[in-house]
Amino acid sequence: MDTVLAGVSDAFTLINITYIAMGVFMGIMVGAIPGLNGPMAIAVAVPLTYYMSPLGSIAFLIGINKGGTYGGSVAAILLNTPGSPESTSTAFDGYPLVKKGKGLKALKMALYASITGDIFSDIVLFTVAAPLAIVALRMGPPEMAAVFAFSLTIIAGLSGKSILRGLLAAILGAYISCVGLDIETAQPRLTMGLSDLIEGVPIIPMTIGLLALSEILIQIETTLLGRQTDSGQYRVFGKDIPKEDRTVSWVEYKSCLRTIVRSALIGTGVGAIPGIGAIVAGFLGYGAAKRASKNPEEFGTGKLEGVAATEAANSAVVGANLIPLLALGIPGSLSAAILIGAFLMHGVDPGPLIFQEHGQLIYGIFAAMFMANWINFGIANLGLRLFAMVVSVPKGIIHPIVVVLCIAGAFANGNAMFSVAVMMVFAVLGYFMRKLDFSFATFIIGFALGGTFEQSVRQSVILFKDSPWTLLTHPIVMLFVALTIFAVWRILNGQMSVKKVVAVAPDSPSVSETKS
């Protein structure tokens, strides 16, 4: 109990509250700009936290994550262009509400649902992570190797349209994690004679290049080729807009509460499973609300319940993503994978031992997460007019600023131009990954898990090389091996079924043919 109280006390200091507020504000601002998102902002911001305390650093980055999740809904509602992918289904009802003159009401409902979902998943994180870590401490190397294998399989299978692309991305990430000193012989491997790679590929410049700079390259290309599409702009603010169209009443919130709780449950469950992510959670929450509604035909025409369903689900993923990260050392999402870099930068190794070795820090993070929800609520409410203006900032202003921040962030990682070069290399790789529809989340999670997975496998080989059949007496190992095989079979079976459906489907007439 003393550890818990000490952690909570650390979180409620003025400097950490300031860091949280700065993170939330930055997250909403970045999330509101179409094409930018929370993980990108976190990747760029990690080097800025080098001189912060461990708690201040993580609190700042979590503030960005929470703010960015809500910020994505601002552009989705006002421009029908999601600021981040997880807010895609928010636009289904948010933008029609704007066209009806109820844009401010939609923004506020998105905020209330987002905060509710966030609080719900944080409570689950607080109650589940520590007991799960205790269970994980009883696992040996073979159990952990089996868990990691299962996690990588699930992540690869759920990462996109192609299981092959997902698997290749995970393998490539794990392969790049092998750069550096061999964990057994301490001999350099895959370093290409570069002394800067002795400690491995630095994760911070890598993520900045993959996520932020590659996206800027894509956006510049889109601008040069003239592929941009402009959405109509509608007035959202004004005293002449009726009050009932500018606010969400308690009755309206209460009418959506069942949907919000359902979506929060869905988002929490999805977030606790590595690799699925907030995009899937948002669509699942929206779909569940539509199926449960007495008037499903109203969805997509400007229904508050549709906005609430998506935002509660995708926000609930934020806290739940940290359950596998803190308890098992397995990042549940792209944002969680980037947070590993921040933890390691401050000498903290996520995993089962984190509650024993850094208990005060973890309970401080829990308190900071809870505080961040209310700070997010306050900043978003007070700054809605400002955030609504951000969505229309010209890309010609945004791009140079982001590029400068990327270079500065990469250089801050060791104060060396080598880090900038690493960022550039992975920016080019990220550009082609985007073009070929490879998953960044799978790649980065594969990179983050690669070293630990290799260590677990090697330790298992050393322990059981003389009697490998004794692994059959380890029920957890056999359980996860069976789950991995079953997951591979289901994924491959699903891919084959889709191909068969496509192969036998008759050619449908085009729209023009139908009209003629």
UniProtKB/TrEMBL annotation:
<feature type="domain" description="DUF112">
    <location>
        <begin position="18"/>
        <end position="445"/>
    </location>
</feature>
<feature type="transmembrane region" description="Helical">
    <location>
        <begin position="40"/>
        <end position="64"/>
    </location>
</feature>
<keyword id="KW-1133">Transmembrane helix</keyword>
<feature type="transmembrane region" description="Helical">
    <location>
        <begin position="264"/>
        <end position="289"/>
    </location>
</feature>
<feature type="transmembrane region" description="Helical">
    <location>
        <begin position="473"/>
        <end position="492"/>
    </location>
</feature>
<dbReference type="InterPro" id="IPR002823">
    <property type="entry name" value="DUF112_TM"/>
</dbReference>
<feature type="transmembrane region" description="Helical">
    <location>
        <begin position="436"/>
        <end position="453"/>
    </location>
</feature>
<keyword id="KW-0472">Membrane</keyword>
<feature type="transmembrane region" description="Helical">
    <location>
        <begin position="397"/>
        <end position="429"/>
    </location>
</feature>
<feature type="transmembrane region" description="Helical">
    <location>
        <begin position="143"/>
        <end position="160"/>
    </location>
</feature>
<feature type="transmembrane region" description="Helical">
    <location>
        <begin position="203"/>
        <end position="225"/>
    </location>
</feature>
<dbReference type="Pfam" id="PF01970">
    <property type="entry name" value="TctA"/>
</dbReference>
<feature type="transmembrane region" description="Helical">
    <location>
        <begin position="12"/>
        <end position="34"/>
    </location>
</feature>
<feature type="transmembrane region" description="Helical">
    <location>
        <begin position="360"/>
        <end position="377"/>
    </location>
</feature>
<feature type="transmembrane region" description="Helical">
    <location>
        <begin position="109"/>
        <end position="137"/>
    </location>
</feature>
<keyword id="KW-0812">Transmembrane</keyword>
<protein>
    <submittedName>
        <fullName>Tripartite tricarboxylate transporter permease</fullName>
    </submittedName>
</protein>
<feature type="transmembrane region" description="Helical">
    <location>
        <begin position="322"/>
        <end position="348"/>
    </location>
</feature>
